[in-house]
Amino acid sequence: MAKKAETKSLLRTKSRGSIRSMFDEVAPTYDFLNHLLSLGIDNYWRAKTADKAKQLLGKNTSPKILDVATGTGDLAASMAKITGAKVTALDLSPEMLIIAKKKYPHITFHEGYAEKLPFGNASYDLVSAGFGVRNFENLDAGMREFHRVLRPGGHALIIEPMIPRNAVMKSLYLIYFKKVLPKIAALFSKSSFAYDYLPNSVEQFPQTEAFIAILKKSGFKSAEYFPMTFETSILYLAKK
Ligand SMILES: C[S@@+](CC[C@H](N)C(=O)[O-])C[C@H]1O[C@@H](n2cnc3c(N)ncnc32)[C@H](O)[C@@H]1O
Predict the structure, then answer these.
(1) Is the confidence at residue 221, as pLDDT, over 90?
(2) Is residue 198 included in any domain, yes or no?
(3) What total of structural domains would you count in the chain?
(4) How far apart are the first and last CA of the chain?
(5) How far is 201 from 224, CA to CA, in rounded Å?
(6) Per DSSP, what are the bridge partners of residue 222?
(7) Which of 47, 55, 104, 188 places its Cα 20 to 30 Å from the Cα of 5?
(8) Ligand 1 atom having least distance to the Cα of 20
């Protein structure tokens, strides 16, 4: 299938099988391209999120965190390092998980779907997801699962790319995201399609208040958001 048609079809269905194939294909170059394309800022966003988690966990002496859509495990690892929590992580892509397990043997990784988490009710103090929920086949079901596995009073922390609201920043960002980034990615990744899908999936995803509404509909008592780095990334915080 031609690249544009493939992107359109995946954006429409977000079928788990196709999402898994795409991430399996990008896995070998994922870390390298992630750091290159975000100019290294992605690690700062993960560290900021883990700092927030530490603050939320407060005096909890044996906190448990679940990192969903963990990919190669970087957010899970930041969470473990900064909060000292026991971290469990899950992803649907076996190839991403092979890399994650090699990098972070101290973290427990599971293969599975966000929409049907293999964990009991109220079993985590905090659930995190970095740059993952945008790809869920069923976003509402995923958010309900985040809510179900959290203990009452527990928090979800979700990072997503953001399209800046300022008109000038927005046009610069879209030029980089839609024209420059796919060309750089195509030089290194087997899947140039994945980097056509990326900006389109961000544009299509509900941001700020629209995503807050989804979190609240999924059962969260309160939800707020914190734009980061000139609104190029956004951290959502929801409380059960
Ligand atoms: C862009 S990567 C993000 C990885 C990592 N969290 C990070 O911070 O770099 C998105 C990940 O979400 C995973 N994913 C997408 N849909 C999923 C689902 N429904 N359930 C579990 N994982 C999913 C993909 O396999 C992929 O590894």
Answers:
(1) yes
(2) yes
(3) 1
(4) 43
(5) 22
(6) 239
(7) 188
(8) 25
Count the helices and strands in the chain (H runs, E runs): 10, 7
- C-alpha 71 to ligand 1 mean position (Å): 5
Give how far Cα 169 sits from Cα of 45, 165, 176, 225, 230, Å.
Answer: 19, 7, 11, 19, 8
- Tens of pLDDT, residue by residue over 155-204, are 999 999 999 999 999 999 999 988 998 888 888 877 777 888 888 999 99
pTM higher than 0.85, yes or no? yes
* Position in ligand 1 atom list of the atom nearest CA 142: 19
Among 48, 135, 160, the mutation site with the greatest number of ligand 1 atoms within 8 A of its Cβ is 135
CATH at residue 71:
3.40.50.150
Ligand 1 centroid from CA 168, angstroms? 30
